[in-house]
Write a structure and sequence with these properties.
The protein is of the alpha/beta class. 34% of the residues lie in helices and 32% in strands. It contains 7 helices and 15 strands. The longest helix is centred in the middle third of the chain and has 18 residues.
Length: 235
């Protein structure tokens, strides 16, 4: 894991770094590499994975909104904390799925709480899943699974890159997928909440409406509440 802090106030960045180190030490975790930059251009040039980024809005040259958008284009799973004293940027920041919006001065306990949530999300996105088929075993990230479908006697795992016919049934997948990212919307479908575009009382549309899954009417309210809570956790 790599954590980046991008702020043109060096004193602030060092203070935030000390809070993050303290968080990991308090939780008996070896602190990961924490890298500081004072501008977005150098941050973007760094070849290391941008797992968690604390990003100031008011940066020299390109602002934090533009940098955040570029980070998300490179890796949709980058967890971004926006840090600023100005609320007028909130709507723009939310457009590229900022994880949290923090205001200065920082509150140590608030950072601790949000870092705990960020680590939970990070761990869920890096979970690798093995899909066993008649042709072999394929390893994918759980976040790349769109949905799983029971079709006649086949169980199809639809992913971002390809579809795989699993030798296991849908009940197996219910017990092996990292919840709460996944939801069984129907006896024949398990959907990944991350990829849902929209839904109504009978259908769920996935990956910009390219796919659809059934939604049992008796599960509609439960699904709706679960999905809204999931969206809230991503903010």
């Amino acid at each position: 894991m790599h954590i980046f802090i991008c702020d043109d106030d060096t004193k602030f960045s060092l203070h935030l770094k000390s809070i993050l180190v303290s968080f990991f030490e308090n939780n008996s975790i070896n602190p990961p590499e924490i890298i500081i930059y004072n501008n977005g251009e150098d941050l973007l040039k760094d070849p290391k994975s941008k797992d968690i980024v604390f990003l100031d809005i008011e940066l020299p040259e390109e602002n934090g909104i533009d940098i955040g958008n570029k980070l998300k284009q490179k890796n949709k799973n980058t967890i971004i904390f926006i840090i600023t004293s100005h609320y007028q940027y909130l709507d723009e920041a939310m457009r590229f799925h900022v994880f949290r919006y923090l205001t200065k001065p920082l509150e140590k306990q608030r950072i601790f709480k949000n870092m705990k949530d960020a680590l939970s999300l990070y761990n869920s996105t890096i979970t690798k899943i093995s899909i066993e088929t008649k042709d072999g075993i394929f390893i994918v990230l759980s976040s790349d699974i769109l949905f799983i479908e029971a079709d006649a006697r086949r169980t199809i795992v639809h992913t971002v890159a390809a579809d795989y016919i699993s030798i296991h049934n849908i009940n197996y997948w219910l017990n092996h997928l990292p919840m709460p990212c996944f939801f069984q919307s129907h006896r024949s479908f398990i959907v990944n909440l991350e990829h849902i575009s929209s839904f109504d009382h009978s259908l769920i549309y996935i990956q910009n409406n390219q796919h659809k899954a059934y939604l049992a009417r008796r599960k509609y309210t439960h699904f709706r509440n679960t999905f809204l809570l999931y969206l809230e956790s991503k903010r």
